[in-house]
TrEMBL record:
<dbReference type="GO" id="GO:0005576">
    <property type="term" value="C:extracellular region"/>
</dbReference>
<dbReference type="InterPro" id="IPR004898">
    <property type="entry name" value="Pectate_lyase_PlyH/PlyE-like"/>
</dbReference>
<dbReference type="GO" id="GO:0045490">
    <property type="term" value="P:pectin catabolic process"/>
</dbReference>
<comment type="similarity">
    <text>Belongs to the polysaccharide lyase 3 family.</text>
</comment>
<feature type="compositionally biased region" description="Low complexity">
    <location>
        <begin position="218"/>
        <end position="281"/>
    </location>
</feature>
<keyword id="KW-0964">Secreted</keyword>
<protein>
    <recommendedName>
        <fullName>pectate lyase</fullName>
        <ecNumber>4.2.2.2</ecNumber>
    </recommendedName>
</protein>
<keyword id="KW-0456">Lyase</keyword>
<dbReference type="Pfam" id="PF03211">
    <property type="entry name" value="Pectate_lyase"/>
</dbReference>
<dbReference type="InterPro" id="IPR012334">
    <property type="entry name" value="Pectin_lyas_fold"/>
</dbReference>
<dbReference type="InterPro" id="IPR006311">
    <property type="entry name" value="TAT_signal"/>
</dbReference>
<dbReference type="InterPro" id="IPR013320">
    <property type="entry name" value="ConA-like_dom_sf"/>
</dbReference>
<feature type="region of interest" description="Disordered">
    <location>
        <begin position="217"/>
        <end position="294"/>
    </location>
</feature>
<keyword id="KW-0732">Signal</keyword>
<dbReference type="InterPro" id="IPR011050">
    <property type="entry name" value="Pectin_lyase_fold/virulence"/>
</dbReference>
<keyword id="KW-0106">Calcium</keyword>
<dbReference type="GO" id="GO:0030570">
    <property type="term" value="F:pectate lyase activity"/>
</dbReference>
Length: 501
């Protein structure tokens, strides 16, 4: 934990105890050290982390993150060319709170680094960031749309600064080193986790603290106020004399090493509508190795999330899935939390009913069956996909219906450069798409792909490429875009099938 400094002085200098004391002086110094290193932690603290014990409280998505030494332990994102690197912690149910952290830009020449609040997806959040322009800027991030609520100049953004974001009701306020940067009204979801983020930048982070603000429920997981620094009898300690205790957050995840899904023999349930409310998780199930699914498995709305080998960067290529479905398998009533790794793989025909992705990892689901395979996604939803949500690598037909998706790059992509190519078909029915960054579906016209689309509502954009045609290949090269819009052959829909709100 960094030594608490006056707000106008974001220095990270350390106090050192004087050595060579007499017996009485040594005893006094030990007493003082105990008082400094093990203060009374505030019961109001929701969460704190100084990374001295690692970064197990955080889920990663993009970038290269590691705990390194910079005077003491800090959390570093080292990949300066990462478009959007972020780590998340806390609870999706947190509403009114204040989050602060010390931030040091290592390379801000092309981007930004900062702190996020009320993150409800990988690309939906309020954030306060140090930028390449030498400013601190308070922003509303919703997919590819970034709105500035105000900014202020910051001296030497590549030194340590304390950034704080307050969220209370619809009001968002940003502070740097105790000085107010900006305040404004936001329209994002009223609850969400905290985050540390970079975009085309590298940075270090330390001393994260979350405290509740008045005006509503702030917590579903209060940190246990146990100080992590321990005093010794040797009065020569060189560790920072910390003014506030570092609370050890109580883990809210159930430490189930091998989550077992309950199989049922019930009839297929009715799927949720495309406007249904997101379900609340009934339990937490960490997944350390891919779960095989055959027959019908009902998850009972448990939240499954990657852990151990499956707990790495959420957008990294080549990850294993949380679930692997055998030919003919049905998976229903499951929530995939973060990190979601590579989501779900279908080896053949499969059905996903009321499956919810809280934060899409590499892909939400990948379909790998043969030419006659049929895949159905009925109900459920997905949030926070930087690129595609559903990846179609095999053959056959994928139907996506009664589904909601937000903050995403594209809903569906027929693989444009797989080594083995197929004629593929996608059917999109009754889908609500909010804040898309790219397009709805992408197909390969040269392989005879078809997309049949109806009942689509697009929220937050006045126009969108609904169906994009490419010339695919099997050489691994980037496919060539050749057109958009309905043509009655590959992209089969009418303009009246699409509603913009």
């Amino acid at each position: 934990m960094r030594h608490a400094m006056p707000s106008a002085t974001p220095s990270r200098r350390r106090r050192r105890l004087v050595v060579g004391l007499g017996a009485a002086g040594a005893a006094g110094a030990v007493t003082a050290l105990v008082a400094i290193l093990v203060p009374s932690a505030s019961a109001a603290t929701l969460f704190s982390d100084d990374f001295e014990s690692g970064a197990s409280n955080w889920s990663k998505s993009g970038g290269t993150w590691s705990v390194v030494s910079d005077g003491s332990k800090v959390y570093q994102q080292a990949k300066a060319d990462s478009e959007l690197a972020r780590v998340f912690a806390g609870e999706t149910s947190w509403t009114n709170y204040s989050v602060e952290a010390k931030v040091k830009g290592l390379d801000l020449s092309k981007g930004l680094a900062g702190v996020a609040a009320r993150a409800s997806g990988s690309s939906t959040m309020y954030r306060l960031a140090l930028t390449s322009a030498g400013k601190a800027e308070l922003q509303v991030v919703k997919g590819s749309t970034i709105t500035s609520l105000g900014s202020a100049a910051v001296g030497n953004p590549t030194s340590w600064h304390t950034l704080k974001v307050d969220v209370s009701g619809n009001t968002v306020t940003g502070w740097v080193d105790g000085a107010k940067v900006a305040s404004g009204t936001g329209s994002l979801a009223g609850a969400g986790r905290i985050g540390l983020i970079t975009s085309y930048a590298s940075a270090e982070f330390d001393d994260v603290a979350v405290n509740p603000l008045g005006g509503g429920s702030a917590t579903s997981a209060t940190a246990t106020p146990t100080a992590t620094k321990t005093a010794t009898a040797t009065p020569t300690a060189t560790k920072t004399a910390t003014a506030s205790a570092t609370a050890t957050p109580t883990a809210t995840k159930t430490a189930t090493a091998t989550p077992t899904a309950t199989k049922t023999a019930t009839a297929t349930p009715t799927a949720t509508s495309s406007s249904a409310a997101w379900p609340k998780a009934t339990s937490e199930k960490p997944v350390t190795a891919t779960i095989p699914v055959s027959g019908t498995v009902d998850g009972g709305n448990a939240r499954y999330f990657g852990s151990g080998a499956l707990g790495g960067d959420g957008q990294a290529e080549g990850q294993d899935p949380l679930f692997k479905l055998a030919d003919g398998a049905v998976l229903k009533n499951v929530i995939l939390g973060a990190p979601a790794a590579d989501g779900i793989h279908c080896s053949g025909s499969c059905t996903l009913i009321n499956v919810w992705w809280e934060n899409v990892g590499e892909d939400a689901a990948t379909f790998k069956g043969g030419a006659s395979a049929t895949y159905t996604i009925d109900g459920g939803g997905a949030k926070g996909a930087d690129d595609k949500v559903f990846q179609h690598n095999g053959g056959g037909t994928l139907t996506i219906k009664n589904f909601q998706v937000s903050d995403f790059g594209k809903l569906y992509r027929s693989c444009g450069n797989c080594s083995t190519q197929h004629k593929r078909a996608v059917v999109v029915q009754n889908v609500v798409a909010t804040a898309p960054a790219g397009s709805l579906v992408g197909i390969n016209a040269n392989f005879g792909d078809t997309a049949r689309i109806s009942g689509v509502t697009v929220v937050g954009k006045k126009s969108l490429d609904i169906c994009v045609k490419f010339t695919g290949n099997d050489s691994g090269k980037e496919p060539t875009k050749i057109g958009t819009g309905p043509d009655g052959v590959n992209c089969i829909y009418n303009e009246s099938d699409i509603t913009f709100k």
